[in-house]
Specification:
Number of helices: 1
Distance between the termini: 35 Å
Shape: globular
Largest sheet: 5 strands, antiparallel
Radius of gyration: 20 Å
Number of domains: 2
Length: about 400
């Protein structure tokens, strides 16, 4: 884990805001609008319009190739950028989760222009969390998932810092280590403010929302389990044992099954979201880290951090259909909306690979800034965003 140091004054005044945000659009008016959205036209309204308006159809992605469009770097306005992950809503909002000691999420629009900074400081009691001393605590955003309607976003916090938290987690921590539990924050996308806090296990990593909007699923790295959050209840309702170091999650399009990559082993776990039974799909390869599903749910695509390959797996049988080598240490991945292409960052090679799913062929490998760690495919524009550990965010067009 690379410790990042805050730029002096970059987040000044945000820690005490307890879930507020710093925006490029200036103060919001009493009618809820802003200079960017217009009178009475909130970001939620913009997102809803974007979600319901049919835009130009994007061409099939298998025949396209990535071209660098823009590199986003830190400015005085953004403060420090140290993105661990990046996620596009598909409705003109992109959230970059900055490394743990940066204590923030940075919001951009679909073109890469800065919108707001969301600090990770909260007062737990304000959100109904009891059993902890009073005072402001801070988290460390890791991953994020939008709700199906794109009005909310859920982010995991690697560890908590402040009153009541004396045993932060780390990358090497068995369940017996007794590290502190952590929390998932819910962010209101209209205001870029934290509006709900939910306790989960120790060192939560990946977050996924079910397409039906019923559950939020969170892998807990140090308690080796999966938190199931009931969205309606606003709390964790189940904790399912997974195996050593669970990480990536994918959910079937019909919300019936969740698939969890067990990065400390070689298997994929399949969770029945009706009965909460857990099955093992079998040997996927060394160090499965990230999972996405095909649009029809028939296949899983898994990055194998230990093997330096991507596996195509039958979602029902668990059989490995094919694998392809990419760069060294493939980590995060996303899939095009048409299901024809995968985009994966190769951490140790400092490249991004494009793989066509029909033949599992690497058709392109493009250099990036050092240590790309997060990636997202924007379903609204067809652009691919790459988050690099040391501060750059690169935007590619597939054309």
């Amino acid at each position: 884990m690379v410790a990042s140091v805050l730029v002096a004054g970059a987040l000044a005044g945000t820690a005490a805001d307890s879930g507020g945000s710093r925006s490029a659009t200036g103060p919001r008016r009493p009618d809820g609008g802003s200079p960017a959205t217009g009178p009475g036209r909130t970001a939620a309204a913009v997102a809803t319009t974007a979600a319901t308006t049919v835009g130009p159809q994007l061409p099939p992605t298998a025949g396209l190739r990535l071209q660098r469009l823009r590199t986003v770097v830190a400015t005085e306005q953004t403060g420090q950028l140290s993105p661990k992950s990046i996620v596009a809503s598909g409705t003109s909002v992109v959230y970059a989760q900055n490394m743990i000691y940066s204590h923030s999420i940075t919001a951009f629009d679909a073109d890469g222009d800065y919108v707001a900074t969301i600090p990770d400081a909260v007062e737990l009691a304000r959100f109904g969390i009891t059993g902890f001393p009073p005072g402001t605590v801070r988290g460390g955003p890791v991953e994020l998932a939008f709700s199906p309607d794109r009005t909310k976003a859920y982010t995991s916090n690697y560890s908590m810092f402040g009153p009541g938290f004396a045993h932060p987690g780390g990358d090497a921590c068995p369940p017996s280590s007794g590290v502190d539990p952590s929390f998932v924050y819910r962010i209101d996308v209209a205001t870029h403010r934290i509006d709900q806090v939910i306790q989960v296990g120790a060192v939560p990593k990946y977050v996924a929302t079910t397409p039906d909007g019923r559950y939020v699923l969170v892998t807990n790295w140090c308690t080796d389990d999966l938190s199931v959050i009931d969205v309606g209840a606003g709390r964790e309702v189940r904790r399912l044992p997974m195996g050593r170091h669970p990480r990536g999650i994918a959910v079937s399009p019909d919300s019936s099954r969740a698939y969890v990559a067990i990065m400390g082993g070689r298997e994929i776990k399949a969770v029945d979201l009706a009965s909460f039974g857990v099955a093992t799909l079998g040997d996927a390869g060394a160090g499965p880290r990230h999972i996405v599903t095909s649009p029809d749910g028939a296949f899983l695509y898994v990055t194998l951090n230990g093997d330096g390959r991507i596996a195509k797996i039958d979602a029902r049988s668990g059989a490995v259909e094919a694998t392809v080598a990419t760069g060294a240490e493939p980590r995060s991945m996303d899939i095009a909306a048409d299901g024809q292409s995968l985009y994966v960052v190769n951490y140790a090679s400092s490249t991004v690979s494009k793989v066509t799913t029909a033949d599992m062929a690497e058709v392109q490998e493009v250099p990036t800034a050092r240590h790309p760690i997060g990636i997202t495919y924007d379903r609204g524009t067809g652009r691919v965003w790459v988050a690099c550990y040391e501060g750059e965010i690169e935007i590619f067009e597939d054309r």
